[in-house]
Amino acid sequence: MLKVWITGANGQVGTAINRVVEPLDFEIMNTDMDELDVTVMEEVLRFAQINRPDVIINCAAVTDVKKCEENPKNAYLVNALGARNLAIAARKSDAVMVQISTDDVFDGKATEPYKEFDETNPITVYGKSKLSAEHYVKEFTQKHFIIRSTWVYGHTNNFVSTILKRAETESVLNAASDQFGSPTSAKELAQFILTLIRTNLYGTYHATSEGICSRYEFAQEILRLAGKNNELHAVLSDESELSNIRPPYAVLENFILSCENTYSFPHWKDSLAEFIKEEVVS
Ligand SMILES: NC(=O)c1ccc[n+]([C@@H]2O[C@H](COP(=O)([O-])OP(=O)(O)OC[C@H]3O[C@@H](n4cnc5c(N)ncnc54)[C@H](OP(=O)(O)O)[C@@H]3O)[C@@H](O)[C@H]2O)c1
Protein backbone atom coordinates (compact mmCIF):
# COMPACT_ATOMS: atom_id res chain seq x y z
CA MET A 1 0.00 0.00 0.00
CA LEU A 2 1.44 3.40 -1.00
CA LYS A 3 1.96 5.82 1.90
CA VAL A 4 0.84 9.25 0.73
CA TRP A 5 1.48 12.49 2.62
CA ILE A 6 -0.83 15.36 1.67
CA THR A 7 0.13 18.88 2.77
CA GLY A 8 -2.47 21.66 2.79
CA ALA A 9 -4.91 18.77 3.20
CA ASN A 10 -7.87 20.92 4.29
CA GLY A 11 -7.89 22.91 1.04
CA GLN A 12 -10.02 22.17 -2.02
CA VAL A 13 -7.72 19.65 -3.69
CA GLY A 14 -6.50 17.99 -0.48
CA THR A 15 -10.08 17.47 0.68
CA ALA A 16 -11.12 16.14 -2.71
CA ILE A 17 -8.29 13.58 -2.68
CA ASN A 18 -9.44 12.38 0.74
CA ARG A 19 -13.01 12.06 -0.50
CA VAL A 20 -12.24 9.98 -3.62
CA VAL A 21 -9.39 7.82 -2.33
CA GLU A 22 -9.97 4.08 -1.93
CA PRO A 23 -8.76 3.38 1.62
CA LEU A 24 -7.44 -0.05 0.65
CA ASP A 25 -5.20 1.39 -2.06
CA PHE A 26 -3.42 4.16 -0.17
CA GLU A 27 -2.47 5.04 3.38
CA ILE A 28 -3.10 8.77 3.61
CA MET A 29 -1.32 11.09 6.05
CA ASN A 30 -2.89 14.55 6.11
CA THR A 31 -1.33 17.74 7.43
CA ASP A 32 -2.40 21.36 7.14
CA MET A 33 -1.10 24.62 8.58
CA ASP A 34 -2.07 23.70 12.18
CA GLU A 35 -0.15 20.41 12.18
CA LEU A 36 2.72 21.23 9.89
CA ASP A 37 3.81 24.52 8.35
CA VAL A 38 5.57 23.64 5.09
CA THR A 39 7.76 26.75 5.41
CA VAL A 40 9.58 25.27 8.42
CA MET A 41 12.27 23.02 7.02
CA GLU A 42 13.00 21.14 10.27
CA GLU A 43 9.32 20.21 10.68
CA VAL A 44 9.09 19.03 7.09
CA LEU A 45 12.24 16.92 7.34
CA ARG A 46 11.23 15.47 10.71
CA PHE A 47 7.78 14.48 9.46
CA ALA A 48 9.24 12.77 6.39
CA GLN A 49 11.90 10.99 8.44
CA ILE A 50 9.41 9.63 10.99
CA ASN A 51 6.60 8.74 8.58
CA ARG A 52 8.55 7.65 5.49
CA PRO A 53 5.99 8.58 2.80
CA ASP A 54 6.25 6.97 -0.65
CA VAL A 55 4.56 10.01 -2.19
CA ILE A 56 4.29 13.65 -1.06
CA ILE A 57 1.41 15.60 -2.60
CA ASN A 58 1.91 19.30 -1.99
CA CYS A 59 -1.47 21.04 -1.86
CA ALA A 60 -0.27 23.72 0.59
CA ALA A 61 -0.28 27.16 -0.98
CA VAL A 62 -1.38 30.76 -0.77
CA THR A 63 -3.90 30.66 -3.62
CA ASP A 64 -5.49 34.08 -3.19
CA VAL A 65 -3.95 36.08 -6.03
CA LYS A 66 -4.70 39.44 -4.38
CA LYS A 67 -3.07 38.38 -1.12
CA CYS A 68 0.01 37.29 -3.05
CA GLU A 69 0.29 40.76 -4.64
CA GLU A 70 -0.14 42.42 -1.23
CA ASN A 71 2.38 40.20 0.54
CA PRO A 72 4.89 38.81 -1.98
CA LYS A 73 7.27 37.64 0.75
CA ASN A 74 4.66 35.34 2.18
CA ALA A 75 3.65 34.14 -1.29
CA TYR A 76 7.23 33.13 -2.11
CA LEU A 77 7.75 31.71 1.38
CA VAL A 78 4.77 29.35 1.19
CA ASN A 79 4.42 28.68 -2.53
CA ALA A 80 8.07 28.50 -3.55
CA LEU A 81 10.13 27.76 -0.44
CA GLY A 82 7.49 25.45 1.02
CA ALA A 83 7.70 23.39 -2.18
CA ARG A 84 11.50 23.49 -1.95
CA ASN A 85 11.41 22.11 1.60
CA LEU A 86 9.10 19.30 0.57
CA ALA A 87 11.21 18.51 -2.50
CA ILE A 88 14.32 18.20 -0.33
CA ALA A 89 12.41 15.95 2.08
CA ALA A 90 11.17 13.87 -0.86
CA ARG A 91 14.71 13.40 -2.14
CA LYS A 92 16.03 12.45 1.30
CA SER A 93 13.31 9.86 1.84
CA ASP A 94 13.26 8.69 -1.80
CA ALA A 95 9.60 9.69 -2.11
CA VAL A 96 7.83 10.80 -5.28
CA MET A 97 6.99 14.51 -5.19
CA VAL A 98 3.70 15.80 -6.57
CA GLN A 99 3.51 19.56 -7.00
CA ILE A 100 0.17 21.09 -7.95
CA SER A 101 0.74 24.07 -10.23
CA THR A 102 -1.28 26.47 -12.29
CA ASP A 103 -1.96 28.19 -15.62
CA ASP A 104 -0.69 31.36 -13.91
CA VAL A 105 2.86 30.28 -14.85
CA PHE A 106 1.88 31.56 -18.33
CA ASP A 107 1.13 35.18 -19.19
CA GLY A 108 -2.35 34.44 -20.54
CA LYS A 109 -1.73 36.33 -23.75
CA ALA A 110 -1.96 33.29 -26.03
CA THR A 111 -4.80 32.71 -28.44
CA GLU A 112 -4.62 28.94 -28.33
CA PRO A 113 -4.32 26.54 -25.38
CA TYR A 114 -0.93 26.29 -23.67
CA LYS A 115 0.92 22.98 -23.98
CA GLU A 116 3.37 21.65 -21.39
CA PHE A 117 6.24 22.53 -23.73
CA ASP A 118 5.32 26.21 -24.13
CA GLU A 119 7.42 29.00 -22.62
CA THR A 120 6.34 30.13 -19.18
CA ASN A 121 6.07 33.85 -18.39
CA PRO A 122 4.13 34.55 -15.21
CA ILE A 123 2.78 38.07 -14.66
CA THR A 124 1.43 37.82 -11.11
CA VAL A 125 3.30 37.22 -7.85
CA TYR A 126 1.18 34.09 -7.45
CA GLY A 127 2.26 32.81 -10.88
CA LYS A 128 5.91 33.71 -10.28
CA SER A 129 5.97 31.98 -6.91
CA LYS A 130 4.34 28.87 -8.37
CA LEU A 131 6.86 28.77 -11.22
CA SER A 132 9.69 29.05 -8.70
CA ALA A 133 8.16 26.05 -6.94
CA GLU A 134 8.25 24.09 -10.19
CA HIS A 135 11.95 24.97 -10.58
CA TYR A 136 12.76 23.83 -7.04
CA VAL A 137 10.93 20.55 -7.53
CA LYS A 138 12.83 19.89 -10.76
CA GLU A 139 16.11 20.89 -9.13
CA PHE A 140 15.79 18.74 -6.01
CA THR A 141 13.88 15.65 -7.11
CA GLN A 142 14.11 13.26 -10.03
CA LYS A 143 10.86 11.44 -9.36
CA HIS A 144 8.23 14.14 -9.61
CA PHE A 145 4.88 15.01 -11.12
CA ILE A 146 4.16 18.69 -11.70
CA ILE A 147 0.45 18.97 -12.39
CA ARG A 148 -0.85 22.28 -13.72
CA SER A 149 -4.55 22.92 -13.55
CA THR A 150 -6.87 25.88 -13.82
CA TRP A 151 -10.14 27.34 -12.47
CA VAL A 152 -10.37 24.61 -9.81
CA TYR A 153 -13.51 24.48 -7.67
CA GLY A 154 -14.19 22.25 -4.69
CA HIS A 155 -15.78 22.43 -1.26
CA THR A 156 -14.51 25.89 -0.18
CA ASN A 157 -14.32 29.42 -1.56
CA ASN A 158 -14.07 29.54 -5.32
CA PHE A 159 -15.85 31.03 -8.32
CA VAL A 160 -18.80 28.63 -8.02
CA SER A 161 -19.41 29.36 -4.34
CA THR A 162 -18.95 33.10 -4.89
CA ILE A 163 -21.51 33.21 -7.69
CA LEU A 164 -24.02 31.20 -5.66
CA LYS A 165 -23.48 33.30 -2.53
CA ARG A 166 -23.99 36.52 -4.48
CA ALA A 167 -27.03 35.11 -6.20
CA GLU A 168 -28.69 34.91 -2.76
CA THR A 169 -28.47 38.66 -2.16
CA GLU A 170 -27.99 40.38 -5.54
CA SER A 171 -30.53 40.21 -8.34
CA VAL A 172 -28.04 41.33 -11.00
CA LEU A 173 -24.58 39.81 -11.32
CA ASN A 174 -21.63 40.64 -13.57
CA ALA A 175 -19.06 38.24 -14.99
CA ALA A 176 -16.21 38.80 -17.41
CA SER A 177 -16.69 37.78 -21.01
CA ASP A 178 -13.01 38.36 -21.87
CA GLN A 179 -11.42 35.81 -19.51
CA PHE A 180 -11.23 32.23 -20.69
CA GLY A 181 -10.44 28.96 -18.95
CA SER A 182 -11.53 25.38 -18.39
CA PRO A 183 -13.35 24.99 -15.08
CA THR A 184 -12.01 21.87 -13.39
CA SER A 185 -13.59 20.16 -10.42
CA ALA A 186 -11.27 19.33 -7.54
CA LYS A 187 -12.81 15.85 -7.57
CA GLU A 188 -11.76 15.20 -11.19
CA LEU A 189 -8.29 16.57 -10.46
CA ALA A 190 -8.02 14.36 -7.35
CA GLN A 191 -8.96 11.25 -9.33
CA PHE A 192 -6.32 12.08 -11.91
CA ILE A 193 -3.62 12.65 -9.27
CA LEU A 194 -4.36 9.28 -7.64
CA THR A 195 -4.17 7.57 -11.04
CA LEU A 196 -0.92 9.27 -11.99
CA ILE A 197 0.94 8.44 -8.77
CA ARG A 198 0.53 4.73 -9.46
CA THR A 199 2.70 5.19 -12.55
CA ASN A 200 6.31 6.15 -13.11
CA LEU A 201 5.49 8.50 -16.00
CA TYR A 202 7.19 11.42 -14.27
CA GLY A 203 7.21 14.99 -15.60
CA THR A 204 4.97 18.00 -16.09
CA TYR A 205 1.30 17.59 -16.98
CA HIS A 206 -1.55 19.88 -17.88
CA ALA A 207 -4.68 18.51 -16.26
CA THR A 208 -7.96 20.32 -16.83
CA SER A 209 -11.49 19.46 -17.86
CA GLU A 210 -12.35 19.41 -21.54
CA GLY A 211 -13.89 22.48 -23.17
CA ILE A 212 -13.30 26.22 -22.87
CA CYS A 213 -15.58 28.98 -21.63
CA SER A 214 -15.53 32.58 -20.44
CA ARG A 215 -16.18 33.53 -16.82
CA TYR A 216 -19.56 34.76 -18.05
CA GLU A 217 -20.46 31.39 -19.60
CA PHE A 218 -19.20 29.62 -16.47
CA ALA A 219 -21.41 31.81 -14.26
CA GLN A 220 -24.35 31.32 -16.61
CA GLU A 221 -24.05 27.53 -16.32
CA ILE A 222 -23.65 27.66 -12.52
CA LEU A 223 -26.85 29.70 -12.17
CA ARG A 224 -28.75 27.49 -14.60
CA LEU A 225 -27.75 24.25 -12.88
CA ALA A 226 -28.55 25.67 -9.45
CA GLY A 227 -31.98 26.82 -10.66
CA LYS A 228 -31.28 30.53 -10.08
CA ASN A 229 -32.96 33.21 -12.17
CA ASN A 230 -30.64 36.15 -11.45
CA GLU A 231 -29.90 38.54 -14.27
CA LEU A 232 -26.32 38.02 -15.47
CA HIS A 233 -24.41 40.70 -17.39
CA ALA A 234 -21.35 40.06 -19.53
CA VAL A 235 -18.74 42.73 -18.73
CA LEU A 236 -15.04 43.33 -19.36
CA SER A 237 -12.58 42.10 -16.69
CA ASP A 238 -11.91 45.64 -15.46
CA GLU A 239 -15.57 45.99 -14.53
CA SER A 240 -15.91 42.62 -12.78
CA GLU A 241 -14.90 42.20 -9.16
CA LEU A 242 -15.05 38.46 -9.69
CA SER A 243 -12.22 38.37 -12.18
CA ASN A 244 -9.41 40.52 -10.76
CA ILE A 245 -5.83 40.09 -11.92
CA ARG A 246 -5.84 36.66 -13.52
CA PRO A 247 -4.28 35.94 -16.91
CA PRO A 248 -6.98 36.55 -19.53
CA TYR A 249 -6.42 33.25 -21.36
CA ALA A 250 -6.10 30.52 -18.74
CA VAL A 251 -6.54 27.62 -21.12
CA LEU A 252 -4.28 24.59 -20.84
CA GLU A 253 -4.20 21.73 -23.30
CA ASN A 254 -3.71 18.27 -21.74
CA PHE A 255 -1.22 17.67 -24.51
CA ILE A 256 0.93 14.95 -22.92
CA LEU A 257 -2.12 12.97 -21.80
CA SER A 258 -3.47 13.14 -25.34
CA CYS A 259 -0.09 12.18 -26.90
CA GLU A 260 0.20 9.10 -24.70
CA ASN A 261 -3.54 8.48 -24.68
CA THR A 262 -3.36 7.64 -20.99
CA TYR A 263 -6.16 9.66 -19.39
CA SER A 264 -9.07 11.81 -20.42
CA PHE A 265 -10.99 14.36 -18.40
CA PRO A 266 -14.75 14.89 -18.78
CA HIS A 267 -16.22 18.07 -20.27
CA TRP A 268 -16.39 20.93 -17.75
CA LYS A 269 -20.19 21.14 -18.05
CA ASP A 270 -20.60 17.47 -17.05
CA SER A 271 -18.33 17.82 -14.01
CA LEU A 272 -20.06 21.05 -12.97
CA ALA A 273 -23.48 19.38 -13.22
CA GLU A 274 -22.26 16.55 -10.98
CA PHE A 275 -20.75 19.03 -8.51
CA ILE A 276 -23.91 21.16 -8.27
CA LYS A 277 -26.02 18.02 -7.83
CA GLU A 278 -23.78 16.58 -5.11
CA GLU A 279 -22.76 19.72 -3.23
CA VAL A 280 -25.41 22.37 -3.84
CA VAL A 281 -28.83 21.04 -4.81
CA SER A 282 -28.87 17.89 -2.63
N1 LIG B 1 -7.79 26.78 -6.90
C1 LIG B 1 -7.40 26.84 -8.16
O1 LIG B 1 -8.09 27.37 -9.05
C2 LIG B 1 -6.08 26.22 -8.56
C3 LIG B 1 -5.77 26.14 -9.91
C4 LIG B 1 -4.56 25.57 -10.27
C5 LIG B 1 -3.70 25.11 -9.32
N2 LIG B 1 -4.00 25.21 -8.00
C6 LIG B 1 -3.03 24.72 -7.03
O2 LIG B 1 -3.54 23.56 -6.40
C7 LIG B 1 -3.05 23.50 -5.07
C8 LIG B 1 -4.20 23.32 -4.11
O3 LIG B 1 -5.10 24.40 -4.33
P1 LIG B 1 -6.46 24.52 -3.52
O4 LIG B 1 -7.44 25.16 -4.42
O5 LIG B 1 -6.76 23.23 -2.85
O6 LIG B 1 -5.98 25.61 -2.44
P2 LIG B 1 -6.67 26.02 -1.08
O7 LIG B 1 -8.07 25.53 -1.02
O8 LIG B 1 -6.36 27.46 -0.90
O9 LIG B 1 -5.83 25.16 -0.01
C9 LIG B 1 -4.50 25.43 0.31
C10 LIG B 1 -4.28 24.89 1.72
O10 LIG B 1 -2.90 25.13 2.08
C11 LIG B 1 -2.90 25.60 3.43
N3 LIG B 1 -1.68 26.32 3.72
C12 LIG B 1 -1.40 27.64 3.47
N4 LIG B 1 -0.17 27.94 3.94
C13 LIG B 1 0.34 26.80 4.47
C14 LIG B 1 1.56 26.47 5.10
N5 LIG B 1 2.52 27.39 5.28
N6 LIG B 1 1.75 25.20 5.53
C15 LIG B 1 0.80 24.27 5.38
N7 LIG B 1 -0.39 24.51 4.78
C16 LIG B 1 -0.62 25.76 4.33
C17 LIG B 1 -4.14 26.48 3.48
O11 LIG B 1 -4.48 26.75 4.82
P3 LIG B 1 -5.24 28.15 5.13
O12 LIG B 1 -6.56 28.07 4.42
O13 LIG B 1 -5.34 28.14 6.61
O14 LIG B 1 -4.37 29.25 4.59
C18 LIG B 1 -5.16 25.59 2.76
O15 LIG B 1 -5.74 24.64 3.64
C19 LIG B 1 -2.25 24.78 -4.84
O16 LIG B 1 -0.89 24.51 -5.03
C20 LIG B 1 -2.74 25.71 -5.93
O17 LIG B 1 -1.73 26.62 -6.31
C21 LIG B 1 -5.20 25.74 -7.59
How would you describe this protein?
The chain has helices spanning 12-20, 41-51, 65-70, 72-92, 125-140, 159-169, 186-196, 215-225, 255-260, 268-281, and strands at residues 2-7, 26-31, 55-58, 96-102, 144-149, 152-153, 172-176, 180-181, 184-185, 203-206, 213-214, 231-235, 249-250. It has 282 residues and is α/β, with parallel strands linked by helices. The two termini are 34 Å apart. Helix 1 packs across helix 7 (186-196) and helix 4 runs parallel beside helix 5. The chain has ten helices and 13 strands. Strand 1 (2-7), helix 1 (12-20) and strand 2 (26-31) form a beta-alpha-beta unit. 45% of the residues are buried. The chain has one domain (2-158, 181-212, 251-266): Rossmann fold. The mean pLDDT is 95. The structure holds NADP nicotinamide-adenine-dinucleotide phosphate. Residues 7-8, 10-14, 32-33, 37-39, 59-63, 78, 82, 100, 102, 130, 149-152, 156 line the site of NADP nicotinamide-adenine-dinucleotide phosphate. NADP nicotinamide-adenine-dinucleotide phosphate binds next to helix 1, helix 4 and strand 4.
Condensed summary:
The chain has helices spanning 12-20, 41-51, 65-70, 72-92, 125-140, 159-169, 186-196, 215-225, 255-260, 268-281; strands spanning 2-7, 26-31, 55-58, 96-102, 144-149, 152-153, 172-176, 180-181, 184-185, 203-206, 213-214, 231-235, 249-250. The protein is of the alpha/beta class.
Give keywords:
282 residues, Rossmann fold, 3-stranded mixed β-sheet, 41% helix, 19% strand, binds NADP nicotinamide-adenine-dinucleotide phosphate
